[in-house]
Design a protein that fits this description.
The structure holds two protein chains of two kinds. Chain A is mainly α. Chain A has one domain (about 5-365). Chain A has helices at about 25-55, 75-80, 95-110, 130-135, 140-150, 155-185, 190-195, 200-205, 205-220, 230-235, 245-270, 280-300, 305-335, 345-365. The longest helix of chain A has about 35 residues, at about 25-55. Chain B is mainly alpha-helical. Chain B has a single domain (about 1-115), classed as Up-down Bundle (Methane Monooxygenase Hydroxylase, Chain G, domain 1), CATH 1.20.58. Chain B has three helices and no strands. Chain B has helices at about 1-30, 65-85, 90-115. Chain B is flat and about 70 Å long. Classes of the chains: A mainly alpha, B mainly alpha. The interface between A and B is large, with 78 and 70 residues.
Chain lengths: ~375, ~120
């Protein structure tokens, strides 16, 4: 996947004007519809892909009765969940219980407002795009905490506390590893970061990619880090007392967050919509699906970590490495000659390998050791 | 620029409206008697593996990550300063780099102190 503008295969696709397809209101209407369709469509696709994929990983079939290859399973689930009785526990804080899914889902949807699907094809090309994503994505934690607290259930409350602990710990590695990308691109606008990637940043910033992938999967509670819904200890975590459509919204939020992380990784590290021959939006969707496939691959491979390991990983492994990565990148941005940018790739991969190996040795993470 | 924030605000309205519609759809269907509505005390009790919950849930709680939250605050402020620096590093040059390194090293000293004091252990 070498994206070399010298090949002349790119840039056939014209940049869209900032108020495509007409004026202010048409732009808003068009992109609201596109974003909603993109999120709902891909979330349903992801649910199907993950259930089928994990079925295969666990040597069973997965859902295959509704429609060809079980493709209609997410739709059947949606109808089922819509027709469920709405049960609110008598002891719950009713208003907060109702508001929690709203507070969790809306910020997740808002992330996609700044993600470019094609050159200039985004709702709002904010010049503080990365900062906007970092700021708005943390709000859905408030929704999850509201859900856990208002259910008046001890398991949910524990889950909510764990979620806050996780997000507080992993926010710093996420933000610091994104700062490495910002340093290289010299801009916070997502569209301009994509434009800056003549070499995809996964090659120039392999360590930042690794750190961001781990920290972001922890922040959205994907499986090796899904302590807030650890079924073996907390039953179902923060959504024990939720049923029907409100539960469905949390489920949707979970997958929309996975989609958001995949889209951010695809945009910031894999070159976003850039690629030869195929139309740019297809490249973008393809990269998003590829990143998500890696996420559920990890889910079906790794066992869940313990809470002390979770915190230690964030504070003693990811954070120092992210700081080192930031300083190294800053020096490289100033000192590295612009012409020999490709030579930076092996150097950075070597730095990453050396740092990861030394740090793991240093902390004796894994290998059956309890203290980290 | 303001146009972009206008789009963001309008999209916020769309997102809230969409979520509210999905939340209120079952309520409407319940009023139309499509969805059952038969509450009873057992159904509405708090879930607890077959037993009654003992005591209230909202009690004083040991939050072990208070120390984490303090370290987080310090580092988050550092990050807020680092972002504008990261965008403009090419213009700021080595002078800016040294300034940022001094700032980072001050925070790193605090971070190492917290590590040394075992504030980063989950006990």
């Amino acid at each position: 996947m070498v994206l070399n503008p010298g090949l002349g295969m790119e840039y056939h696709w014209q940049a869209l004007p900032p108020d495509w397809p007409g004026n202010f209101w048409w732009h808003w209407l068009a992109f609201s519809v596109i974003i909603l369709a993109f999120v709902l469509g891909l979330v349903m696709g992801f649910i199907w892909l993950e259930r089928r994929g994990i079925g295969r990983f666990q040597i069973r079939l997965g859902p295959n009765r509704t429609g060809p290859f079980g493709l209609l399973q997410p739709i059947a689930d949606a109808v089922k969940v819509l027709l469920k009785e709405n049960i609110v526990p008598a002891a719950a804080d009713k208003i907060v219980h109702w508001l929690a899914p709203l507070v969790a889902f809306v910020p997740t949807l808002m992330i996609f407002a700044v993600v470019p699907f094609q050159d200039g094809a985004l709702l709002a090309d904010l010049n503080v795009g990365v900062l906007y994503i970092v700021a708005i994505s943390s709000i859905s934690t408030v929704g999850i905490f509201m859900a856990g607290w208002s259910s008046s259930n001890k398991y949910s409350l524990l889950a909510a506390m764990r979620d806050v602990a996780t997000v507080v710990s992993y926010e710093i590695p996420v933000v610091l590893s994104l700062a490495g990308v910002v340093l290289l691109a010299g801009s916070l606008s997502l569209n301009q970061i994509v434009m800056a990637q003549d070499i995809p940043f996964i090659l120039l910033q392999p360590l930042a990619f690794l750190l961001f992938f781990i920290a972001a999967s922890a922040e959205i509670n994907r499986t090796p880090f899904d302590l807030l819904e650890a079924d073996s200890e907390l039953v179902a975590g923060f959504h024990i007392e939720y049923s029907g459509m409100k539960f469905a919204l949390f489920y949707l939020t979970e997958y929309a967050e996975a989609l958001a992380v995949s889209a951010i990784i695809a945009t910031l590290f894999l070159g976003g919509w850039r690629g030869p021959v195929l139309p740019p939006w297809l490249w973008f969707v393809g990269k998003v699906v590829a990143v998500f496939s890696v996420m559920f691959w990890i889910r079906s491979t790794l066992p869940r970590v313990r809470i002390d390991q979770l915190m230690a990983l964030a504070w003693k492994f990811l954070l120092p490495l992210a700081l080192i990565n930031l300083v190294v990148t800053a020096v490289q941005v100033l000192a590295w000659p612009e012409a020999s940018l490709w030579a930076m790739v092996p150097v950075n991969v070597a730095i990453m390998a050396a740092l990861v190996v030394t740090w793991s040795r240093l902390l004796k993470l894994g290998g059956g050791r309890v203290e980290v | 620029m303001l146009v972009n924030y206008g789009h963001i605000a309008l999209f916020l309205a769309v997102a809230i409206l969409f979520t509210l519609t999905t939340l209120l759809l079952p309520v409407t269907l319940r009023l139309l008697k499509v969805i059952p509505d038969k509450p009873n005390p057992a159904k509405q009790s708090t879930f607890e593996c077959g037993m009654e919950t003992i005591g209230k849930t909202w009690v004083q709680f040991n939050f072990r990550y208070y120390a984490y939250a303090l370290v987080f605050l310090a580092l988050d402020v550092l990050v807020v300063f680092l972002y504008p620096w990261a965008v403009n590093l090419r213009e700021l040059g080595y002078y800016g780099l040294i300034g940022a390194l001094i700032l980072i090293s001050i925070v790193v000293v605090g971070y190492l102190y917290a590590w040394k004091k075992k504030a980063l252990e989950w006990k």
